[in-house]
Each structure stands twice: as structure tokens, then as C-alpha cells.
Amino acid sequence: MSQLNSILSLFEITDKNIIVKQISTKISPSGLHIHTINANLINDPIRCPHCGFKTLSNNGIHLSHIRLCTLNDGRYQLNLNKQRYLCHNCRETYGAFVQTNFTFSNNIKQQMVTLAKRTN
Asked: Across the strands, what pairs with 22?
């Protein structure tokens, strides 16, 4: 595992199809450190999930912005390029699946539930 990919293990991201390309840091006007992890999610599907035929080709890339949990008072964001595919048999398109409308990691969702419980 490369050093860049081992960073994903800090956020409990274990998908072997995610390849980290670059990590950058910038400081927001409020002084918050924002760390951006740029990665690609590429899998090689064999068959179309809609019709089952082996007539797939690459059909562009979709960029998802996923907010990860904070570490050392810094905000982490995963910019994930997901490969899109086109089936030449049924003409359906689909992408490498993460989750529909997925903008917060599961760790962030767990932190929100924990904070909500503390306010009671």
C-alpha cells in the first residue's frame, strides 16, 4: 500500500479501487486548514447491471465531493473521480457506485448522531 493510499485507512476507507493521486492543503479565510484528497475510483465491471450483456465502454468521469471527519483541527475532503460507463446494448449509463447523494462519510454521520445525543 502506498503512503498516499494509507491515508485513506485513517478514515476507515478500505475500497481497493480508490487510488489517491494528490493531497493538498489550503487555509480558509477563517484560519481553518482544509486538506483535500484527490482520488480516482475505477473498477472494471464485466457486465451491464441493467441488461447483463458484456457491451460496456467508458463514458466520462463524475466528480464527487465527500466530506470526511476532522483530524487535528483540520477539515478533510475527498474529491473522488468516479468512472462512468455506457452499455451499447441497452444504452443505459451508470457509474462506479459509492452511494446516492453521498456527501458525508459514515464517520461524519456518526459524529452528528453523537453530538445530537449530547445536546439532550
From this structure: 38
